[in-house]
Prior knowledge:
The protein is mainly alpha-helical. It has two domains: 7-47 and 161-219, no CATH class; 51-157, no CATH class. It is built from ten helices and no strands. Helix 6 (113-123) packs across helix 10 (196-209) and helix 9 packs antiparallel against helix 10 (196-209). 36% of the residues are buried.
Amino acid sequence: MNGRMSAENGGTAEAANRKLRSERILRAEGVPSFAALPVIETAAEAQKRSKEEVALRTLCLLFVAAKGEGLGEELVERLLESYELRPHLTPKELAFVLDNSPSQHDRIQFTWRHEAAWTLLWALGFVSQLGKPAQICDVSFAAGTMAERTTSQFIEDSKLRPIADILDQADLIYRYHWAVRNARMKGQQVPAALEPGVTEERHYALNWLIGYNGQAWDCVTTDT
């Protein structure tokens, strides 16, 4: 169950039109949609995060994803201090970063955060477009956006997109994710070559960007 409303139950024309645009994109790509899936938040309802907040969250995600891929402990400690990320890591992230022998499961889970970081890099203008969630992101490019800059330079170079653009992507990924989950629930092949992991991480990041249900990063849900 999610906290969103159907267009008939109070959703505005803005939200209803956004839903229609998303459904047109899905039809063109051969992705099934569910007409009764609610509209999402409007620009007036969504939480508008600051450029600095999004930039710091992006750096944290790139950092924990690199640790997931096997970044050495010495380098982990050095980056933690040089980027001054410790205050901005969530409790789960910090526990993982400080664990000298994390489980393979945890490593895999945090490596997937590259996809969430990619979504935030798009929101900050480093990535030109997201496109259909059908393939993994360019990890080397994503890592390079951090490696080439200090924390202050990264924030300075960030240009947060308008909330309307972010909401367009949030609405679209909500419907992509429904199609992925619906296929899996029915034991069917995921449609239109959608990548389930990429889809889920994007949905997670976009829900955080718009403040869905006011959830902190570690507690974000991806209802469909």
